[in-house]
Amino acid sequence: MTGKNDECAACGKAPKWKQDFPVEWEGDHYVTRREMVKFMTLGSALLACANWITAIAGKLIHRGSQAERHIGSTSALDQAGLLLFRYPTDQDPCIAVRTPEGKLVAYSQVCTHLSCAVVYSKIDNALICPCHKGVFEIERGSPIAGPPTRPLARVRVEQRGDRLIATELEV
Ligand code: FES
After folding, report:
1. 152 in ligand 1 pocket by Cβ < 6 Å?
2. Is any atom of ligand 1 closer than 6 Å to the C-beta of 144?
């Protein structure tokens, strides 16, 4: 039972329902709000830490995987205008594009927004993410439209005769 406001004006007793359900409402609200703020603050801090740990772990994993890998032939790339390959592992889809200016660029296909696969649009000369209409310019992989804020991870590719060799993933 709480203060005088809950008491009957005529008899001075708490109402019957209050006697059956003796809940301290004011105290409950105060503690609940405080606990909720604590929970949200700690929860946000934990999520931020988990985000940083995931980002750092991802960089460390990729840093150790800069092995060279044969990804295809220059003639096949020039014929199709693009080449899909996997680097540094078979689980990492990438795309190499021969730009209209004749430059060879290669990126991870994983969109930096929510990880959908980006595709090359010859009409726009850009990499497009179909999930949320993200657009990355082709020269540096920088986001120019849509929700992505970080550039695509770039893959260094060397041409050795007709062979294309991926040598490094720049995260
Ligand atoms: S996943 Fe690419 S724009 Fe959202």
Report:
1. no
2. no
Give the burial class of 119: count Cβ atoms within 10 A of its Cβ; 0-12 exposed, 13-18 middle, 19 or more buried. Answer: middle
What's the Cα-to-Cα distance from 162 to each of 8, 60, 108, rounded to whole Å?
94, 32, 22
> Residue 99: in which H helix or E strand, if any?
none
Ligand 1 site-directed mutation target among 114, 128, 136, 144, most atoms within 8 Å of CB: 114
Give the integer Cα–Cα distance in Å for 102 and 90: 28
DSSP code of 115?
A: -
pLDDT tens by residue, 16-28 = 777 787 776 665 5
Residue 118 burial by CB count (10 A; 0-12/13-18/19+): exposed, middle or buried? buried
Contact 102, 110 (CB under 8 A): no
Residue 147, SS3 per DSSP: coil
Mean pLDDT value of segment 118-133: 96
CA angle 157, 160, 166 (to 5 degrees): 25
**pLDDT tens, residue by residue, 140-169:** 999 999 999 999 999 999 999 999 999 999
* Cβ atoms 135, 128 nearer than 8 A: yes
Nearest CA among 149, 124, 123 for reference residue 134? 149
